[in-house]
Amino acid sequence: MTSIDSIRREYERYPPSGLRRFTRWFTKRIPTRLYARALLIIIVPMVLLQSVIAFVFMERHWQTVTQRLSMAVTRDIAAIIDVLETYPQDASYDQIIRIARERLELNIAIEPPGDLPAPRPKPFFSILDQILSEEITRQIQLPFWIDTVGNSNIVEIRIKLADKILRVFAKRSQAYASNTHIFLLWMVGTSLVLLVIAILFLRGQIRPILKLTQAAESFGKGQPMPDDFRPRGADEVRRAGVAFIKMRERIERQIEQRTAMLSGVSHDLRTILTRFRLQLALVGDGPEIDELNKDIDDMQSMLDSYLSFARGEAEEDVGSVSIKAVIEKVAADGRLRGATVTVSVQGDDEIQVRPNGFARLLTNLVSNASRHADEVAIEATNRNKWLTISVDDDGPGIPEDAREDVFRPFYRLDAARNQDETGTGLGLAIVRDIARSHGGDVTLSDSAMGGLRATVRLPV
């Protein structure tokens, strides 16, 4: 039983808890970029803190102040009612009206008895309407009608007495903490200022990380380091940048040393093979000589394959390449082998790759397919910063359990699908090595044509 099967059985036996399921659900929905996550780390606590402060302020301060103001206004109205009922006046109420206006800052009017207006619709959220109604009910205990709706600075209160109606006009600020919006305005304003400062600061901190990412991606694609790259930002980011530069220098130094060694080995071995050719040429002609010359040709071809794989095209500079031109050339070589090769290219035609390595990658795939199939289809799509090339054929294919093994150097299949022209077993190994040196990869799968599909994906 494979490890995947055992993990699946363990998962079914012990399913994840509710907390773990929520964690997975939440992880899938939060942003993946560092900049967005850092902003969330700042914004979410700020919003929560200010929400709590606003709730406490509304619940405690705003409601308490409004209740005390409404209580005071209601107390003044109750005092006026007591005066009206205790000291009735036959002619007019001028003195009471004057005292209410000058001493209590209330404009009142005494009207003949009648019915109160119909109750107005209750506002969705009005702390004044609620608290003022409660205070009038508690202190006066008479039928009343109030109007607190709208943006008017006046609150109207009508109270039905035994033989008259008391009409009171009070300033809204007398019964309501009307300056609350100033607090909310300051709170929102300071939050926006802090948010802008946080965004500017984070951009400065994230930019060095993005530069380091670009430098690493360029190195993975075999491109030179950006000219303006140098370690910046926080100490940890600077240390990562310095470590990356040193790592790149060590790798480039190792590549140079390996290239120099391979060049020396290649020169020495080719010298020996050339000497063999000269000696055989001096011997003369004959069947044995022809066989020896063929062996030397095979050795020469195998030597080139080994050196090409060991070198990995790493020392080649990046240049601009026409996708269609390279594929058409490779397709023409496949047609010479007797296969029917079709080509389809979509998207931008120009890409930046190592020209020789890119051509060798396609040549190995198409030649491998054309040797074992009658029909080959090459499709290239360059979109969304990725180049995808698929090579389909109608050949015998490769068993699914061996599709990773064929990328190992010198691995051979009975069907010989991993052999290049010299039979060295390095064809697909070279393909994957070149693809990964460009920052991409190559995979094998079943083809709709009935054979094998080789898919190459390269970042461009």
Automatic annotation (TrEMBL):
Cellular component, GO, one term: plasma membrane
Ranges annotated as spanning the membrane: 34-58, 182-202
Signal peptide extent: none
Alphabetized UniProt keyword annotations: ATP-binding, Cell inner membrane, Cell membrane, Kinase, Membrane, Nucleotide-binding, Phosphoprotein, Transferase, Transmembrane, Transmembrane helix, Two-component regulatory system
EC number assigned by the record: 2.7.13.3
Keyword presence, Transmembrane: yes
GO terms, molecular function: ATP binding; phosphorelay sensor kinase activity
Catalytic activity: ATP + protein L-histidine = ADP + protein N-phospho-L-histidine
PANTHER family the record matches: SENSOR HISTIDINE KINASE ENVZ (PTHR44936:SF5), SENSOR PROTEIN CREC (PTHR44936)
Annotated protein name in UniProt: histidine kinase
UniProt source species: Hoeflea olei
